[in-house]
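Please fill in the sequence for the structure shown.

STRUCTURE ENCODING:
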């Protein structure tokens, strides 16, 4: 594949991908083919797998969208797509581990899945969920209580992207104090979503609020964008944190 000519290049080649080996795993990505707005086919999934390998990632947690309106994924649809990617890993002899989970949208469907014990946790413990982008909704406290009563740890996806919390650090504190873990999008540190999201990501890191990181990559274009992480001085600090991403 032409996209991955850097795999054969010398170490001095500037097109070589950024190493994420110190992080070891990606806890948020959309690599499964054909079930959400991520990879649309197995060829695109393979491109991402090759890029992950070049970046030194050892494990991928696949987290396709689960929401009542657009992405009505279930354990069955996720598992079927997961098996396709597992087959790609085995066929191409890639040094990657995979885990199937989901990015749950905080809607009525999520509450039903919690009640019916239909969730797919990360490491049998963490439930990755996202809030609406326009407003936090009215169910946050109840949702957290329900997850915790089931023995799960809530893991909030990309808190830096919720603009209604920007310049309101007390809101982050409230969620952290209820036992919610925070997952940062690495892309936010590149300014991919905007300057405000980048600054919010930096503030979360400075406050020591980040528990896990993910690429939130929907395709190889997002993984390539991560080369710009070297332009953010906080990336070095991030790599030293005791993140949940670490294996073993």
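FILLED IN BY: designer on duty
SEQUENCE:
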């Amino acid at each position: 594949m032409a996209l991955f000519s850097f795999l054969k290049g010398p170490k001095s080649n500037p097109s070589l991908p950024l190493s994420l080996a110190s992080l070891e795993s990606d806890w948020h990505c959309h690599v499964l083919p054909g079930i959400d707005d991520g990879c649309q086919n197995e060829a695109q999934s393979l491109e991402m797998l090759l890029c992950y390998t070049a970046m030194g990632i050892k494990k991928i947690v696949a987290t396709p969208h689960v929401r009542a309106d657009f992405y009505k994924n279930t354990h069955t649809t996720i598992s079927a797509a997961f098996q396709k990617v597992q087959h790609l890993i085995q066929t191409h002899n890639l040094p990657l581990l995979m885990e199937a989970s989901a990015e749950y949208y905080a809607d009525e469907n999520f509450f039903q899945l919690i009640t019916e014990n239909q969730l797919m946790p990360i490491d049998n413990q963490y439930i990755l969920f996202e809030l609406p982008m326009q407003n936090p909704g009215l169910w946050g406290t109840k949702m957290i209580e329900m997850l915790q009563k089931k023995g799960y740890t809530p893991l909030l996806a990309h808190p830096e992207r919720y603009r209604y919390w920007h310049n309101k650090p007390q809101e982050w504190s409230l969620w952290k104090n209820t036992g919610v873990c925070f997952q940062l999008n690495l892309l936010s540190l590149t300014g991919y979503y905007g300057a405000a999201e980048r600054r919010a990501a930096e503030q979360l890191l400075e406050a020591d609020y980040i528990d896990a990181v993910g690429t939130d990559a929907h395709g190889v274009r997002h993984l390539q964008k991560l080369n710009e992480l070297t332009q953010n001085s906080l990336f070095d600090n991030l790599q030293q944190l005791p993140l949940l991403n670490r294996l073993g």
